[in-house]
Backbone:
C-alpha cells in the first residue's frame, strides 16, 4: 500500500503551486516532482519557524530565505552537497518565476547566485584494471541475465537506465560484419548509435535469448520488467553488489563506473574527444571530461609522442620521388628538409639560449622560403 502525504496546509501553497505549474509546462514529470519537493520543504520550514508569513510580499532574504538555507546545511544526516545545490537552484528558479508572474521584482533578489555553493569537483571513477578484469571474467563465467547486462554496459558506455529501456531490436547491421546499438533517449534526452564489435553483438543475442525464456508477455524491450523501470534497475544494482561481495571486491562499486571505464578506454585507444562525446551522449565537453581518467602515465605517453613526432608548422619534406628535384622546386624541398631537421633537433633541447637561437634561425629559414617562392612566381 502506498501512503500519500496529506496536502500541505500553508497560505502560500496555491501561489507556489501555480509557479511550479508554469515552470514545468515543458519539463518531465520527474522535474515537476523535484520542484514540488522543494516547495513543500520550504513551506514546511516557513510555517514552523515564521507562521506570521502568509503573503508572498512578506518574504525577506533575511531571515526567511537565509534561514531555510542554513536549515538545509544543518540537517542530520547531512544532505549531499549536490542535493543541497539542487534545492537551492530550484527555489531560486521558483522565486524568479514568482517575481515575473506576481510583478514583484524584489523576489528575484531573495536568493542570489553566490548563495549557492559550487558543485564539488569529483575525480573520474573508472574501475581499476584489476577490478575490471576480475568482474569481466566473473560475468563471463556466470553467463546469466545480470552478467550479460553489465558486460553490455562495460562495452558500450551506456547508463543503466538506458539499458533498461533498450528495445528488443536495438542491434542494427551497418555493413558486412559491422554492427551498432541504438541507445534510446536517456538522461539528457538524446539518442545515439554506438558502434560495437562481434563480442558485444553476441551479448545482445544472449539477452534476446533470456527475454524469450521469460514468461512475461513481449513488450518490445530487451530486458523484461517484472515491475517498474526503477524495480529492474534496483534489481541489477543488487546483483552487482552480490557479485562484488562474492569476489571480495569493494561492495561500493557502482554501475556508473563501467561507463567511466569505457570512456577512459576509448580515449586511450585513440578516439577523438568529439567522437567520445557522441558515444557517451553528452552535449557539454565539461561533462565528458568528468568521465575521463587522465593519469600521469597518460600524460607521460602523450609528452613523449609529441617529442618524437612534433606537430609543427614546417611541413615534412617530400619523399615520393627518389630523384632530387632541380630548379626552384629542388631548392624549396631542401629548405623544407632543413626546417624539419632543425625543428626536431630544437625540440630535443632543454629551454635555454641554444634553443632560442635555433628558434630564431628557423624563423629566418621561413622568411627565406617565402622570398624564394616570390622569386619563383615572378
Residues:
Amino acid at each position: 500500500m502506498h501512503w500519500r502525504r496529506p496536502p500541505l496546509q500553508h497560505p502560500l501553497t496555491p501561489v507556489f503551486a501555480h509557479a511550479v505549474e508554469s515552470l514545468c509546462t515543458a519539463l518531465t514529470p520527474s522535474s515537476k516532482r523535484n520542484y514540488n519537493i522543494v516547495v513543500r520543504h520550504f513551506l514546511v520550514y516557513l510555517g514552523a519557524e515564521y507562521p506570521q508569513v502568509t503573503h508572498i510580499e512578506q518574504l525577506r532574504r533575511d531571515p526567511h530565505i537565509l534561514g531555510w538555507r542554513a536549515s538545509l546545511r544543518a540537517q542530520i544526516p547531512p544532505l549531499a552537497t549536490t542535493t543541497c545545490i539542487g534545492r537551492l537552484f530550484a527555489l531560486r528558479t521558483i522565486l524568479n518565476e514568482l517575481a515575473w508572474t506576481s510583478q514583484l521584482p524584489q523576489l528575484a533578489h531573495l536568493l542570489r547566485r553566490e548563495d549557492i555553493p559550487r558543485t564539488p569537483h569529483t575525480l573520474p571513477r573508472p574501475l581499476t584494471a584489476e577490478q575490471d578484469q576480475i568482474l569481466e571474467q566473473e560475468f563471463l563465467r556466470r553467463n546469466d541475465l545480470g552478467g550479460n547486462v553489465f558486460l553490455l554496459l562495460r562495452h558500450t558506455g551506456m547508463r543503466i537506465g538506458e539499458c533498461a529501456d533498450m528495445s528488443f531490436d536495438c542491434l542494427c547491421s551497418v555493413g558486412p560484419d559491422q554492427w551498432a546499438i541504438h541507445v534510446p533517449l536517456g538522461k539528457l534526452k538524446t539518442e545515439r548509435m554506438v558502434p560495437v564489435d562481434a563480442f558485444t553483438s553476441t551479448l545482445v543475442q544472449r539477452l534476446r535469448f533470456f527475454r524469450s525464456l521469460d514468461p512475461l508477455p513481449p513488450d518490445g524491450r530487451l530486458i523484461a520488467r517484472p515491475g517498474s523501470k526503477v524495480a529492474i534497475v534496483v534489481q541489477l544494482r543488487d546483483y552487482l553488489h552480490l557479485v562484488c561481495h562474492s569476489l571480495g571486491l569493494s561492495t561500493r562499486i557502482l554501475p556508473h563506473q563501467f561507463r567511466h571505464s569505457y570512456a577512459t578506454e576509448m580515449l586511450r585507444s585513440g578516439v577523438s574527444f568529439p567522437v567520445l562525446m557522441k558515444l557517451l551522449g553528452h552535449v557539454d565537453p565539461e561533462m565528458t571530461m568528468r568521465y575521463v581518467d587522465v593519469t600521469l602515465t597518460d600524460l607521460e605517453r602523450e609528452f613523449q609522442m609529441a617529442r618524437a613526432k612534433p606537430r609543427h608548422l614546417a611541413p615534412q619534406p617530400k619523399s615520393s620521388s627518389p630523384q632530387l628535384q632541380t630548379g626552384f622546386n629542388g631548392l624549396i624541398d631542401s629548405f623544407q628538409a632543413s626546417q624539419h631537421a632543425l625543428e626536431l633537433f630544437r625540440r630535443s633541447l632543454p629551454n635555454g639560449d641554444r634553443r632560442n637561437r635555433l628558434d630564431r634561425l628557423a624563423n629566418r629559414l621561413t622568411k627565406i622560403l617565402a622570398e624564394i617562392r616570390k622569386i619563383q612566381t615572378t
In short: Strands lie at 171-175, 178-183, 192-196. The mean pLDDT is 84. Residues 353-377 form the longest helix (25 residues). The first strand starts at residue 171 and ends at 175.
